[in-house]
Here is the input.
Amino acid sequence: MIKTVYVIAGPTATGKSELAISLGKIINGAVINSDSMQVYKNLEILTARPSSSEMKNIDHHLYGFVNGSERYNVERWCNDATEIIKKISANNLTPILVGGTGLYINTLINGLIDLPPIPEKIKIESEKIFQEFGKDFLINQIKNVDPDSLKEINHNDIVRLRRIWEVFESTGKKFSEWKLSENKKFITNYKFKILLFLPDREKNYQLVNSRFVSMMKSGAVEEVKKLLELDLHDSLPVMRAHGVPEIKKYLVNESSLEECISKGQQVTRNYVKRQHTWWNSSNLDIFQKFDKFPSEIDLNSIKID
Here is the structure.
């Protein structure tokens, strides 16, 4: 029998986590995090991780379990999520994935290019190149080794630019050549029902702005201060989470509190814009699409098996 996994997806600050809990109570479900930053134990406030009280009435998995010193990635998440999905299903619960990281969801469903691990020193080197010489230098480097991959991405996508460079630097083989191989699959015999929420973008921006202010009032500065005491490398994912670089600048007196908040809001709004674009252009099979916030819909409008 093919079992169902529900996926609640969409941009940040839309209320997906609250809907996951409400839906879970109706379908006897358990929630699995699919947000790339909510996995880190060092960041609870800035990643808007569900609170202990919110999680107490329904099982939650893959939240706050990774040390910031680790470079957690999509492959590790897919392996962890697959294990949890199978365990939940075996206990006659319905898995509910919730989060805004479309890459994680897409990879779990469609698989991953079977690349060897990129050494940490190569990742640090690509970060150094980008920081010291800039995006255009990195693009020119890639033009010389893998122009085909460069044609397939937005040249403002620094993560993908670095990834293409890192793959060639560590393997000697073009990323475009690796893509020709059959994808590594993580999970089969499950059907995914994606509930996609893409509400009005301007209203989404307003929620982002107000939520960032609330985070600052709730201890985000102290959270980042404790993170900085760990003396982690700036290239680690946890150090690049929205709000962390901005608050860091404030803590070392490189910006005012007002500038910190304004910049933190801006980078998060930019992320929301990218999320809207990603989901609008996604080839994933969307089960139900809503142009509202999760809090604005009637749960009875969700089609349940």
